[in-house]
Amino acid sequence: MAYNLLKGKKGIIFGALDENSIAWKTAQHCYAEGAQIVLTNAPIALRMGTINKLAEEIQAPVIPADVTVAADIENLFTQAMEHFGGQVDFVLHSIGMSINVRKSIPYYENNYEFTHKGFDISALSLHRVLQTAMKLDAISEWGSVVALTYIAAQRVFPDYNDMADNKAVLESIARNFGYFYGSKKKVRINTVSQSPTRTTAGSGVKGFDGFINYAEKMSPLGNADADQCADYVVTLFSDLTRMVTMQNLFHDGGFSFTGVTQAVIEQMEK
Ligand code: NAI
């Protein structure tokens, strides 16, 4: 059901690769709530993915941008503002990639070239996006930026590998940039820490099936899915959450604050 929560708002959505992507669902939900969208992804992802299907469905232009290239981000904001005829009201950063994870290189043997690349794409990119937006004054007052993260930023999940470090920095950038962007322009910045979700990036983590089943059993409400994540992000883009900024917000069915559940105890007793 739609509530018109984003009526008249305009936003940029990074990271819709295919219909499982959290960004894909978020774009659909934002559109259903009345927003106008610009979609973006890395040029290679645009060639491999199916983003044009989504673009048609939600009447959104697609502007290629590799999030590690400053000129691409500048071009993206400039073109998006031309398209909208003014500033954007929200931005979703839904981007993650680790070559160490992809190549199953354990954390304690990480290849630092791969680490640098993953860090640039998964964490520093948020800073680059925000710095560019601030320079171009591309986000409206009370605008909202959300980046997606995972609880491995706070606790050890061994196979999450160097993505854990990337997420810790991502959350820190949201907090620190949130201070400056909030003070200067009343733009708010938050991270949403989502349950494990079956997507291309998610399924790349070793032992993902065990991981997602464990989280399901360890969450009083069960795992949150991508559609539910999209709903939550809509609220953060809406005017109903105007005073929320610099937060890491868990969207995980209660997983983050649960010590143990009856379902896990029963499993251990078997
Ligand atoms: P996904 O694979 O659908 O999305 C990842 C996106 O990052 C893709 O669209 C990819 O093209 C984009 N990307 C990679 N390199 C890029 C570059 N250089 N420039 C621009 N874009 C680039 O997977 P998912 O799961 O939807 O991931 C979205 C976000 O959600 C990520 O930050 C991920 O870490 C986070 N997340 C995912 C969870 C999961 O279990 N799937 C759990 C918690 C957070």
Automatic annotation (TrEMBL):
Residue positions of the active site: 150 (proton acceptor), 160 (proton acceptor)
Q: Which reaction does it catalyse?
A: a 2,3-saturated acyl-[ACP] + NAD(+) = a (2E)-enoyl-[ACP] + NADH + H(+)
| EC id | 1.3.1.9
Gene3D superfamilies associated with the record? NAD(P)-binding Rossmann-like Domain
Q: Which InterPro entries match?
A: Enoyl-ACP_Rdtase_NADH, NAD(P)-bd_dom_sf, SDR_fam
User: Pathway, per Swiss-Prot/TrEMBL?
Assistant: Lipid metabolism; fatty acid biosynthesis
Which EC class, in a word? oxidoreductase
Keyword Lipid biosynthesis found = yes
Q: Which UniProt keywords apply?
A: Fatty acid biosynthesis, Fatty acid metabolism, Lipid biosynthesis, Lipid metabolism, NAD, Oxidoreductase
Coiled-coil residues are none
Q: Which GO-annotated molecular functions does the record name?
A: enoyl-[acyl-carrier-protein] reductase (NADH) activity
For this entry, the protein name equals Enoyl-[acyl-carrier-protein] reductase [NADH]
In terms of Pfam families, this protein maps to: adh_short_C2
Q: State the organism of origin.
A: Mucilaginibacter corticis
Residues that coordinate or bind NAD(+)? 15, 21-22, 66-67, 95, 167
So what family is this one in? Answer: Belongs to the short-chain dehydrogenases/reductases (SDR) family. FabI subfamily.
